[in-house]
Amino acid sequence: MSTSHTASGQRAGSSGHGRAGTTIYQRAAAAVRNTRLGEAVRRTTDRFRFARRRAVAALDDFEALREHARRIRAHTIDHLDYYLAQLAQRVQAAGGHVFFARTAEDAVNYVLEVARRHQVRTVIKSKSMISEEIELNHHLEANGIRAVETDLGEYIVQLGREKPSHLIAPALHKSRDEIAQLFSSVAGRPLSTDTPTLNAFARAQLRHEFLQADMGITGCNFAVAETGAICLVTNEGNGRMVTSLPRVQVTLMGMERIVPTMDDLDVMLELLPRSATGQKLSVYTTIITGPRRPGETDGPEELHLVIVDNGRSNMLGTEFQEALHCIRCSACQNVCPVYRHIGGHAYGWVYGGPIGAVITPLLKDLRDWGELANASSLCGACTEVCPVKIPLHDLLIGLRKETNAHRPAPWGERVLFRLWAAVASGPGRWQAALRLARLVQRPFLQDGRWRWAPPPLSHWLTDRELPAVARQSFREWWQARSDRPTSGHGVPTPSSHGAGAVPRQAGGAKR
Ligand code: SF4
After folding, report:
1. Could you read off the pLDDT of 60-83 as tens digits, one per residue?
2. Which of 137, 313, 338, 486 can bridge 147 by disulfide, Cβ–Cβ 3.0-4.6 Å?
3. What is the count of structural domains for the chain?
4. CA 351 to CA 341: how far, in whole Å?
5. Between vectors from CA 281 to CA 172 and to CA 71, what angle results, nearest 5°?
6. Atom nearest to 323 CA in ligand 1
C-alpha cells in the first residue's frame, strides 16, 4: 500500500460537473426551492442532534473520550498496513476468506465470482455505504442476480431507485405518503399511510426474502485486527438475519474501518450511537468471527471479507489523511447548515454533508468534484461535533486551495477577492469601505435588508437575505463606549442599554 501519493494525484477529469452535467450550485438551488424536502431534512436532523446533545451531556467526560478516540483512529490509520495484514491473517485463521480490492471494479468482480460459484440468484443486503459507492446492486442485477436491501430506509430508496440521502437515515427525504405509494406499487393494492401498516408490510416482504436468499452482503462498522471480528451496528435486527440465514456471507469494508483491539472497539461503540442517534447503544451490536463452526446452529458456511481501497490510499500521507478517521456517524451532517438546507442528494454522489464534501473529491476526482468543498459556510459546527475530532472545515479549506490550483477561478472573481483582501486587511481601508457601503446601499434597502440589487449581486440574493450594513460598526460602538467615563476599574459606566449590553439594532438595521 502506497503512502506517498498526493491528493492532487487523482484520476483526471475535465467536465467540471459532478453528476449528470449539473453543478453543486444547480443541484443546491433546486433543493432549496423544494420546501417539503427542507422540512423533512430539518425535522430528522433536529431529532438526531438534540438527542446527541443529551447523550453527550450524560457522559462524565465526553471530551476526554473524544480525544481518546481521536488517538486510536490516528494510530490505526498511521499503521494501516500493519493492522490490515493482522486482520487478514486472523480472518483466515478463523476460516474466512479475505480479498483486497484496489478498485470498485475489483470488488464487484470478486463478489460476482463468489455469487456465480454458488449459483446465487437472490442476495439480501444489510446497510452498506461502500456497496453504494461501488454500485454493487446495479452490477448484480446486470448479471441476473436479485439484490434486496433489508434496512428499511435502504429498502425504501431501492424501491424509489434512488441513492441514500443520509449516512444513517437513507430515506429521510421521503414523506410517509411517498413511502406508502412505493409500498402500494409492490403490494398491488393501496396501503394506508400509517406507520404500523407500512412497517408490517415491509416486515412481511423482507421476511420472505430472508428465507429464500442464497447470499448475504453486509457492510462493516468496524473490523477488529486482533481477533478478525466484524462488528455490525444496527437498530432493526436485519444485520443478524443477513448474517445468520444465507449459506454465503460477503462483508464489504472500506479499508479504514478497522480498530486494533476489542478495547478500541469498545471506545468506538461508546461514541458511534451517541453521535449518530443519541442512543447509549444501538439496539443490535453484532460481532461475527469467521463462518459457522461445527456444532453451531446458524451462520454462513462461507464468509468473505472484501477490503476496498477505491481511492482511499491516495489520502494516506497527505494533508487529507484525517478524513480516513471517519466512523460514519452522521453527526456532521446533522449540524451542517448547508446539508440541513439541501439534503444529501444535492452533493451528487453517495456521501453528503461535510464529510461527503471532503471525501467525494478525494475518492472520485478533484477536478470534477472539488466544487463540493464550497458547499460549506466554514462555521466549524461539523468539527465541533465530530466524535473523532476530524478538522473538517480545515480539510474543506485545503480542498478549496487544491481545486483552485487545478482550475483557477474566473479573472473577475480573482480581482474581486484581491480587492476584498486589500480592503479587509487595513483597518483604515475597512472603515472607509463601510462608510461608502452605507451610502451606496440606501436605494436598495427595505426594512433593514437588501431587497434588490443590480447583477451579479441580484443572482446571489435570489436565495439569500443580506442585512444592511449597520449604521455603527462594532469598532465604532466599542470606541464610543470606551470613551465614556469609567467606574474607576477601567470599566465604562452603565449606559441606558444596561451595563455591558450590546445595544439592539446598533446601526438601526433590524437583525
Ligand atoms: S466526519 Fe466525524 S462527524 Fe462526520 S460522519 Fe465522520 S465521524 Fe461522524
Report:
1. 999 999 999 999 999 999 999 999
2. 137
3. 1
4. 16
5. 95
6. 1
